[in-house]
Amino acid sequence: MREVLVKTEEFNDSPAGRIPKDWDCLTINDCLQKGLILDVQDGNHGEDHPKSEDFVTEGIPFVMAKDLVNGQINIADCNKISWKQYKSLRVGFARPADVLLSHKGTIGLTAIVPDWLQDVMLTPQVTYYRVAEGKQLLNRFLFCFFQSHLFQRKLQILSAQSTRSYIGITLQKTLSILIPSFDEQKKIAEIMDTVDDAIARTSSLITKLKQIKAGLLHDLLTRGLDENGQLRDPEAHPEEFKDSALGQIPRDWHIHTIGDLVESAIDGPFGSNLKTEHYVNQPEVRVVRLQNIENGYFDDSDKAYVSYNHASKLHRHEVVAGDLIVACLGDENHPIARACLYPADAKPGIVKADCFRLRLHPSMAIHAYVMYVLNCSSTRGDINLLGQGVTRDRVNLTTLLKVRVRIPPVREQNHIVAIIDSHDTRIRKEETYLNKLKLQKQGLMHDLLTGKVRVKNTKN
User: Fold this and answer.
1) I need a labelling partner for 56 at 20 to 30 A (CA). Which of 11, 107, 149, 308 fits?
2) Which pTM was predicted?
3) Residue 62 clears pLDDT 80, i.e. is over it
4) How far apart are alpha carbons 92 and 42 in whole angstroms?
């Protein structure tokens, strides 16, 4: 037997819209009354609710909404409570195969408690749905349906009615789910599992590639490449290295400040020279802002423009294709002095305040190499000591130009950049494939979980 997808035009009206004639539309309450769902319960409330001071290093996972990641419980980041406290609580005990749904704070995250996780305690942010085995409803199908756009949209509507981003148990029980035959549920779940497995494998590969890149980046930016294109080995060939202010470096490398390398360095205009009211709706001259500068790439998703006329008054702050752009502000997710290159296909723009534009002496350094040095945590030299802000890390242009970096000959810089770029190309390829899988999953979920496309068995 094999499974195929077929379209159907046999629909009936239901409270959830038009559904296949052989499907049911039931509320959670209906499912409880029919015994399809045995229990719906959120985490522990009241005075005995575990507090932060109760958390222990090793113990029972205390699952919050944030711990539901990519359809799984992220055990590694869960807070833990002691076995003694766990046994003293009254409700919130999730079991293997329970379907979890976050209903407070970040709403609509889902997971299934895995078989190997016997003891789990939920916070009041998470609800468990305990499905009766073999009673016309499959927990994997319910898990898939909870992720569907149809169900998620209903959650957002209910959430919008609350000032606390909260959907209580009573309201949750009014929500409807569409239920095909048990056999069709299994087939739908199997198809979605196949897509989820592909997404998980690709995500894992991307994580591994990024870890490999991080290690390679450190080695390339501290040891460099010999005449054969191989990483230098300071233990096997100590004669190829020398001591420096930043530790051992290859003999033909030098320590320079950023200021030694720059041909031109400018900050964005301050004060009234460039304000929000100067922005225009038409795509005239691009304004480069902090949110455009990421580690190693230009984030083009957030666009702002000024008129050609106003840009002409700010000509000294111009940025052109290939320029090195550095952010002077940082936060917990974005380090100070993170850098990227202004895209090769971009038209000339203007850098905003808190963004630096650097142009380097081509005989001393290439922009891409210095970008990688600034973005590599293990080679950032003095940068991490230079945060001056009270609530946000900040580095000014004068201080940035004093930062010391390891600089190989330009030819070696180009070779190093080519190797790193090849790894970035592989990562971007996998990320593109991952996004394609996620879009494919959304399309399949919509079609299969509304009955627009049916799964049927046919003989080989």
Assistant:
1) 107
2) 0.80
3) yes
4) 6
